[in-house]
Design brief:
With about 270 residues, this protein is α/β, with parallel strands linked by helices. Helix content is about 50%, strand content about 15%. The N and C termini lie far apart (about 45 Å). The protein binds NADP nicotinamide-adenine-dinucleotide phosphate.
Length: about 270
């Protein structure tokens, strides 16, 4: 148990499917025979993706949904179940970033980011979990971030939303594993998607820019991790070494992270 050995005839719900990582995941799931419910706010982009999937023989349903809105989440998940059957796999991927000093954040924007990045995943997970428990089977993926394990400056609110996701996923995994439900936490490093504006890209440390991966590569690694029954995936994998270093030498890690992002001003 725990391994999702085949995606054939499985029902998958992917949030944030209109772009980047979610789009790549939806396409790869459909190619492997899954029926995919595509959720995001931009219906035109979802419709185009659903068309791309159905025209190559797959099955997809586009549902406009703001994951930060509980009513919209309930309605969309009901519609997905009616059309495609109960969810076998939920990928909590919808989210966005925000690079700024903590003092520059409007508090309404802080609330909104937690609402989407963290509570959105809570709402979506609650929308499928009862049914998965009844069936004694299910897979839930949380798209967190390396910033959910090691917090860089100018990412305070984003990192907090991703630390919250990692905490939720880790505890939930232990609560539901004996009920037949498998939780996978994914912590990507930098992925080449519209998540980064041109300005953000210029601000990225050169080392991070050089090591960015394509969303298709990450999506392949996520499906591979599900097939192998893994509970955590940091990608690229070598980045997980930094967690061990942080545990053993927190001061060293703090200085490195501060200097990488802020130059000489960071990390005393
Ligand atoms: N790119 C990276 O380097 C990176 C690294 C670590 C983690 N991540 C995480 O990976 C996930 C996907 O990011 P990405 O890189 O693929 O970025 P992206 O290309 O900007 O895609 C983000 C997706 O989330 C959706 N979304 C945003 N707010 C939403 C809301 N309120 N309700 C429903 N959907 C919403 C967007 O769709 P609409 O705008 O149509 O709603 C879009 O489909 C995010 O959770 C992000 O934090 C990304």
């Amino acid at each position: 148990m725990g391994r999702l050995s085949s995606f054939e005839e499985k029902t998958a719900i992917v949030t944030g499917a209109s772009s980047g990582i979610g789009r790549a995941l939806a396409l790869q799931l459909a190619e492997r025979g899954a029926r995919v419910a595509l959720l995001a706010r931009r219906k035109d982009a979802l419709d185009a993706l659903a068309e791309e999937i159905t025209s190559s023989g797959g099955r997809a349903l586009a549902l406009a949904c703001d994951v930060g809105d509980r009513e919209q989440v309930s309605a969309s998940f009901r519609a997905a179940e009616e059309a495609l059957g109960p969810a076998d796999l939920l990928i909590n991927n919808a989210g966005y970033g925000g690079h700024r000093w903590f003092l520059e954040w409007d508090l309404n924007d802080v609330e909104r980011m937690m609402q989407v990045n963290f509570l959105g995943a809570v709402y979506c997970t609650r929308a499928v979990l009862d049914s998965m428990v009844r069936r004694g089977s299910g897979w839930i993926v949380f798209m967190a971030s390396v910033a959910g394990r090691i917090a860089p400056p100018r990412e305070s609110v984003y990192a907090a939303s991703k630390f919250a996701l990692v905490g939720l996923a880790s505890a939930l995994s232990l609560e539901v594993e004996n009920l037949g439900i498998h939780v996978l936490t994914v912590c990507p490093g930098a992925v080449r998607t519209p998540f980064f504006s041109e300005g953000d890209l210029e601000e990225l440390p050169p080392v991070a820019r050089r090591r960015m991966v394509a969303p298709e590569e990450l999506a392949g690694a996520v499906l591979g991790a599900l097939r192998r029954g893994r509970r955590e995936l940091t990608y690229p994998r070598w980045m997980a070494l930094a967690y061990a270093v942080q545990g053993l030498a927190p001061g060293f890690t703090r200085r490195q992270v501060g200097r990488t992002v802020l130059g000489e001003r960071g990390g005393k």
